């Protein structure tokens, strides 16, 4: 077919697969090619046909390709969301007379107008960029809440539909989380892969990857949409990767494009935090993006005390993000691998509990432990108010203590009660990630030691060389609740 020489899969115009007839070529990558598909009759008549080859690759490449195809199909079957491109059906080419196409897998998907990469010009912001960024965050927050990492987020893989909305696409590198992380093959766009990716050892399953990798790619993509430039300036992709690596190592500052709107600088900078653990979650970035895009009204309440430079807008970044964790009704229980299905954990808190319980890999930390602590502390009551003890919310935080375990953008701020679960629950995970290493060597169950430290202090646990007598009943309640929530 004219114009497709060198494509991963060259398909002649008019070729038929299933009920679809191949039309104009749309795009190609290293492993797949996309064409417009048309069919006559009732219903939807246009689609995108993604051809993945079989007969023209080596055996090793074939295994890699099959793995990517299975990843993409598995994700589509697990997740449905308005910000994820829809898979309509899968087909296999049966054409023995055409060995280059025979056996090829074809994914029939929604047809987009273009990708966001088509809109990005050198030094030119994309129109309506704030809204587009918020919509990208919607799709990413849904994926993360359901236990998936996209793995290859970039403008080429964000599609603009006919109505102007965007959808995430190309899930060949998407991976399900296995505990705290998933695994990806050594692939990805150099400009959008975080520096730490290549520092991870390569095992038989690939490189370990966390949701924080998507957040880095989100920051790079947002910078491109807002300025038309990548955040690291250099003439080649290799040079930009070196610049990003030097920044992550602390050898050079982050020099974002001067044209980046001031209101978005902290948003992008937080996504590009050198320490992956310091990067905010997709749900938080979604809410912040909605506010910056003017889609969310800023509440008027203020904190009793604020650190310099923290505004009322920043304080309320965290409110109302729980909706980002809502999962498709078609997914029975995306959190079942971490928390027992059918337990009394309120559904709206399960995503936040999993986020907190997988925030780091310290021994003892788990979503079941977080849930057990919340059950013991408040019976999951988000409105708890114990004024006498100065403890509030679902985790019974004291505001003057909570300030040290807030996200970096507002850390050090004393928030006023009530303390919403979207703030309180992830903060428990941050507390344990900081405190559990300090309890190494103390005899006892690490998770229960961390829970008792949360209720008292790490010093109390260390001095007692375990759970102090006065906290044994508390530790036992946490132990029983944790056991009740383990899958």
Automatic annotation (TrEMBL):
E.C. number(s) listed in UniProt: 2.7.11.1
UniProt KW Nucleotide-binding keyword: yes
GO molecular function: ATP binding; protein serine/threonine kinase activity
Domain (Protein kinase): residue spans on this chain: 20-291
Pfam families on file: Pkinase (PF00069)
PROSITE patterns the record matches: PROTEIN_KINASE_DOM
Enzymatic class: transferase
Keyword annotations of the record: ATP-binding, Kinase, Nucleotide-binding, Serine/threonine-protein kinase, Transferase
Signal peptide span: none
PANTHER family: SERINE/THREONINE-PROTEIN KINASE NEK (PTHR43671), SERINE_THREONINE-PROTEIN KINASE NEK2 (PTHR43671:SF13)
Name of protein: non-specific serine/threonine protein kinase
The species this protein was found in: Streptosporangium subroseum
């Amino acid at each position: 077919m004219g114009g497709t020489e060198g494509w991963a899969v060259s398909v002649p115009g008019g070729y038929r697969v299933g009920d679809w007839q191949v039309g104009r070529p749309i795009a190609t990558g290293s492993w797949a090619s996309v064409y417009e598909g048309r069919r006559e009759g009732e219903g939807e008549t246009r689609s995108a046909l993604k051809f993945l080859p079989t007969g023209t690759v080596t055996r090793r490449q074939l295994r890699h390709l099959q793995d990517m195809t299975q990843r993409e199909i598995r994700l589509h079957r697990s997740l449905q969301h308005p910000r994820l491109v829809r898979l309509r059906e899968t087909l296999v080419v049966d054409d023995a007379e055409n060995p280059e196409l025979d056996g090829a897998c074809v994914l029939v998907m929604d047809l987009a107008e273009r990708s966001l990469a088509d809109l990005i010009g050198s030094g030119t912001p994309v129109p309506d960029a704030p809204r587009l960024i918020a919509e990208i965050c919607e799709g990413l927050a849904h994926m993360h809440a359901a236990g998936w990492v996209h793995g290859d987020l970039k403008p080429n893989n964000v599609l603009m539909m006919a109505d102007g909305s965007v959808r995430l696409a190309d899930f060949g590198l998407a991976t399900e989380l296995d505990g705290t992380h998933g695994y990806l093959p050594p692939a990805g766009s150099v400009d959008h892969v975080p520096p730490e990716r290549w520092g991870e050892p390569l095992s038989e399953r690939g490189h370990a990857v966390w949701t924080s990798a998507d957040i880095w790619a989100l920051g790079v993509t947002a910078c491109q949409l807002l300025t038309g430039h990548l955040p690291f300036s250099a003439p080649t992709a290799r040079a930009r990767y070196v610049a990003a690596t030097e920044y992550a190592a602390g050898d050079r500052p982050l020099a974002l494009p001067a044209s980046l709107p001031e209101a978005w600088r902290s948003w992008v900078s937080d996504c590009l935090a050198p320490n992956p653990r310091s990067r905010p979650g997709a749900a938080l970035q979604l809410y912040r993006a909605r506010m910056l895009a003017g889609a969310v009204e800023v509440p008027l309440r203020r904190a009793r005390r604020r650190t310099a430079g923290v505004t009322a807008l920043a304080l309320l970044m965290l409110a109302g993000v729980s909706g980002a964790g809502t999962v498709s009704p078609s997914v029975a229980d995306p959190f079942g691998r971490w928390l027992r299905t059918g337990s009394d954990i309120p559904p709206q808190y399960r995503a936040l509990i999993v986020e907190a319980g997988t925030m780091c890999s310290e021994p003892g930390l788990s979503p079941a432990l977080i849930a057990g602590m919340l059950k013991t502390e408040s019976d999951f009551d988000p409105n708890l108010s114990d004024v006498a003890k100065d403890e509030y919310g679902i985790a019974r935080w004291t505001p003057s203590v909570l300030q040290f375990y807030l996200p970096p953008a507002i850390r050090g701020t004393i928030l006023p009660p009530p303390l919403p679960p979207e703030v309180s629950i992830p903060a428990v995970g941050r507390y344990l990630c900081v405190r559990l290493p300090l309890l190494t060597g103390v005899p006892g169950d690490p998770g229960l030691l961390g829970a008792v430290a949360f209720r008292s202090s790490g010093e109390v646990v260390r001095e007692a060389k375990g759970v102090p007598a006065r906290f044994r009943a508390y530790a036992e309640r946490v132990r029983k609740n944790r056991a009740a929530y383990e899958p």
